[in-house]
Write a structure and sequence with these properties.
This is MFS general substrate transporter. The chain has 484 residues and is mainly α. The chain has one domain (44-256, 268-466): MFS general substrate transporter like domains (Growth Hormone, Chain: A). It has 21 helices and no strands. Helix 4 (51-78) runs parallel beside helix 11 (172-198). The two termini are 38 Å apart.
Length: 484
């Protein structure tokens, strides 16, 4: 595998690192390693944590959304998906097991290890995608979509959990964004790739239908990635072999305000349920629900909107689906870097949300197709950027590493409910404008901005009270401060 470029420019990191470490003077005195040693650990982590995680997460995004490309390539005709709500059912069934299996998977991953558990999940869902290339009824397609959701469920929360176990509070936003946006390249080029695959013709029978080859080729690629994954996936800091014992100590201790070694303990199911009783997790889940529902609705229906709503040809609809994602990757990485730089989350999150609203309004009410297409750039950026940003926000307000895995799994589980919403609010009967789905998405983005502003105001007040000595240890951990 080609070497992966460093996530952070080392020269800039030297300047930023003392701020990024978020250490008080007394904590720096207690630390038993140097700044140079810590930077070396972070640099090694950057080179090893992300490459394969980005590859397999990119494949997961591709495999769950390629049904929209197959739909306009002949799947809808052959399986009669335009009848009633068949297409919506095939979309939303994915999210039922996806939601239910998030938290159990994050309880399993720490015990079994990330490499083997995630490799099993990748290979299994690849087999499901491969099987979709051979279906002859929409019912079998729906069953395979459900199994796809079951096996994909563990990857995203597991990856966020792994990243959260390696990085400090103000190191996470740009890194979670790099992980998500690098993976989003697959979504960006997915429609073009799908169009190329749909041109494959074999024999005189059913395999002359191009939509089958979208599933078959992409399924084979995922299975191969799953078989290779054990050699390239990263483990939790205490389990890796590329660090010395001292570096492992630094890696496992630097991310937590708790006593050394406490973060490697495995929470029980009962402890995890107690962690979920924290009301703040409910607020993070609302944020992620909105982000996920908006992302899925646009991913599933934008190719259809381009085809039916704007009148572009099949080939042009596939090609035009990609540029908004490329713009999104660049703009999202820039705002994630800015968020870590200024050490503020809420202005960036609300900016993303407002941008999405403006983009959706342009799509709805602008007349020229070119202007409506520009709205797709804004809407895609605004919705997609808040997925990693919301996850980083939830991780940043969580002091204990054990709880971060529960927080990530809870948010992404509720995000699956957002996927169900995104699968159903755009319905065939509302074509070509899809007015109810558009306004539902706009309303949820307004809710996102309100929740984010209120939560960050609360966090700033709690930090001030703790600084004044009027509040006991935040999150039960001395010296911890929220990242509003």
């Amino acid at each position: 595998m080609a070497s992966f470029p460093p996530i952070i420019d080392e020269k800039k990191e030297v300047d930023q690192v003392e701020n990024t470490l978020s250490l008080s003077r007394s904590e720096q005195d207690e630390q038993d390693w140097t700044l140079e040693e810590e930077r070396a650990v972070v640099r090694k982590a950057d080179l090893r944590v992300f490459p394969m995680l980005c590859v397999v997460f990119g494949l997961s995004l591709l495999d769950r959304t390629n049904i929209s490309s197959a739909y306009i390539a002949g799947l809808a005709e052959d399986l009669h998906l335009a009848i009633g709500s068949r297409y919506n059912i095939a979309l939303l069934i994915f999210f039922v097991p996806y939601a239910l299996f998030e938290i159990p998977s994050n309880l399993i991953i720490r015990r079994l290890g990330a490499r083997y558990w995630l490799s099993f999940l990748i290979t299994a869902w690849g087999a499901c995608v491969l099987g979709m290339g051979f279906v002859h009824s929409w019912q079998i397609l729906t069953v395979l979509r459900a199994l796809l959701g079951l096996f994909e469920a563990g990857l995203f929360p597991g990856a966020v959990y792994i990243i959260g176990s390696w990085y400090r509070q103000y190191e996470t936003a740009k890194r979670v964004s790099v992980f998500y946006m690098a993976s989003l390249l697959a979504s960006g080029f997915g429609p073009i790739f799908a169009y190329a695959l749909s041109l494959i013709r074999v024999g005189d029978g059913e395999f002359r239908r191009g939509w089958r080859w979208i599933f078959i080729i992409e399924g084979i690629v995922t299975v191969v990635a799953g078989l290779l994954a054990p050699f390239f996936l990263i483990e939790f800091p205490e389990k890796v072999k590329f660090l010395t014992e001292r570096q492992k100590h630094i890696a496992t201790t630097r991310v937590s305000k708790e006593k050394a070694g406490a973060q490697t303990e495995h929470p029980t199911f009962r402890q995890s349920m107690r962690m979920l009783a924290d009301w703040k997790i409910g607020m993070y889940c609302i944020q992620y629900f909105v982000a996920a529902s908006s992302v899925y609705s646009l991913a599933f229906f934008f190719p259809i909107v381009l085809r039916q709503g704007m009148g572009f040809s099949y080939a042009l609809s596939q090609i035009l689906s990609s540029p908004p994602y490329i713009f999104t990757i660049i703009a999202s990485l820039a705002t994630a870097w800015l968020s870590d730089k200024i050490k503020l989350r809420w202005p960036i999150l609300i900016f993303h949300s407002m941008t999405a609203i403006v983009g959706l309004l342009i799509i709805l009410y602008a007349k020229p197709p070119g202007m409506r297409y520009f709205g797709m750039f804004l809407a895609t950026f605004g919705t997609q950027a808040n997925v990693p940003a919301s996850l980083a926000y939830g991780q940043n307000q969580t002091a204990r590493v054990q709880k971060r895995g529960v927080v990530a799994a809870a948010m992404i589980s509720v995000g699956a409910a957002g996927g169900i919403t995104g699968s159903t609010i755009f319905q065939s009967k509302d074509a070509p404008l899809y007015l109810p789905g558009m306004w539902a998405t706009i309303s949820m983005q307004i809710l996102y901005s309100i929740v984010t502003f209120c939560m960050s105001t609360y966090f700033k007040r709690q930090n001030r009270l703790a600084d004044e000595g009027k509040k006991p240890a935040l999150e039960g951990v001395e010296g911890f401060r929220y990242a509003p």
